[in-house]
Design goal:
Keywords: Antibiotic resistance, ATP-binding, Nucleotide-binding, Transport. This is ABC-2 type transport system ATP-binding protein. GO terms for molecular function: ATP binding; ATP hydrolysis activity. InterPro entries: AAA+_ATPase, ABC_transporter-like_ATP-bd, ABC_transporter_ATP-binding, P-loop_NTPase. Pfam families: ABC_tran (PF00005). The chain has about 325 residues and is of the alpha/beta class. It has two domains: about 230 residues, Rossmann fold; about 60 residues, Alpha-Beta Plaits, CATH 3.30.70. About 30% of the residues lie in helices and about 25% in strands. It has nine helices and 14 strands. A six-stranded mixed beta sheet has the order 6-7-8-3-9-10, sandwiched between helices. The chain has a four-stranded antiparallel beta sheet with strand order 2-1-4-5. A hairpin with a 2-residue loop joins strand 4 and strand 5. Helix 4 crosses helix 5. The radius of gyration is 22 Å and the shape is globular. It starts with a strand and ends in a 7-residue tail after the last helix.
């Protein structure tokens, strides 16, 4: 088991420091989670749900108020050094890089912290820079990198120690669609290599594409853990009908909850399978031929549970 957390709780007082009269905020509320070795596991939830707090505890950046967590068999509090030696961390944003060093120098510095021999570090750094598309910019100062390039360097930095577990916290922030696609391929490669991946993201398509299982977190608690497809059962019985290029009013039909137009596709949310078939028959009766009943996506389930607020980044 790569990650085993039991009843993790993390509390703090609002504002700087532990103020005796401040409001106590519970970031994690007796959260328990298992992530088997070799799994790509997604953490989904709105801002403030506890995802990043959990990642920071697992990576030994924070200590829990109570509860226990083990990473690769090591206790994150009492055996923190053993955890750090086997863990790769990629946090979103631009912090954590040395801007006055080149991309290559950044990776060689981090390799030294993992006690990688210098000759091996040079070879490994070049391979990783090529792997994330920064091979030709390896000798440029990081301060000249775009935001997306810095994020790709973060990915390389997280892999320089050949970790058994990699924690990605919003790793595709600032990436263009091509770089985000390449990141998904990288995740697939890591899975093939036997690496365990823990991924937080607001990108539902990303989670659905790369995760073996996902955990929905709200209010510092686990709401559900399932495969992306299996989570469809949490969609409160909703069924969807999709049709291409229609201009027909279906909002008045029995059981229709919502009508969403996404480009040339109209998606009709219904409250039951029978209502979905009623919409399907209605459209077919009016000559629409490109129409289908589809299962809810991970994004549909997410919005059912958290509402539009949950999609905020």
């Amino acid at each position: 088991m790569s990650v085993r957390a039991r009843h993790l709780t993390r509390k703090y007082r609002r504002g700087k420091g532990w103020r005796p009269n401040g409001d106590v905020v519970t970031a994690l509320d007796s959260l328990s989670l298992d992530v088997p070795s070799g799994e790509v596991h997604g953490l989904l939830g709105p801002n403030g749900s506890g995802k990043t707090t959990l990642c920071r505890i697992l990576s030994t950046v924070l200590t829990p108020t109570s509860g226990t967590a083990h990473v690769l068999g090591y206790n994150v509090v009492t055996e923190a050094a053993d955890v750090r030696a086997r863990l790769g961390i990629v946090f979103g944003g631009e912090r954590g890089l040395y801007w006055k060093l080149t991309g290559r120098q950044n990776l060689q510095y981090w390799a030294a912290l993992y006690k990688v021999p210098s000759a091996v570090a040079r070879q490994r750094a070049q391979k990783l820079l090529d792997r994330v598309g920064l091979g030709t910019e390896a000798n440029d100062l990081v301060e000249t990198y775009s935001r997306g390039m810095k994020q790709r360097l973060h990915l390389a930095r997280g892999l320089i120690g050949r970790p058994k577990l990699v924690v990605f916290d919003e790793p595709t922030i600032g990436m263009d669609p091509v770089a985000a696609h390449d990141f998904r391929e990288l995740i697939t490669e890591l899975r093939t290599e036997g690496c365990t991946v823990l991924l937080t993201t607001h990108d539902m398509a990303e989670a659905e594409a790369v995760c073996d299982r996902v955990t929905l977190i709200g209010g510092g608690r686990v709401l559900a853990t399932e495969t992306p497809r299996g989570l469809a059962r949490l969609s409160a019985g909703h069924h969807w009908v999709e049709a291409d290029d229609i201009d027909i009013d279906v909002a008045h039909l029995p059981g229709v909850v919502e009508v969403v137009r996404q480009g040339a596709v109209t998606r009709v949310k219904t409250d039951s399978e029978g209502a979905a078939r009623g919409v399907l028959d209605f459209l077919l009766g009016r000559g629409v031929r490109t129409v289908r009943i589809v299962p809810p996506t991970l994004a549909d389930v997410y919005l059912d549970l958290f509402g539009a607020r949950g999609m905020e980044v």
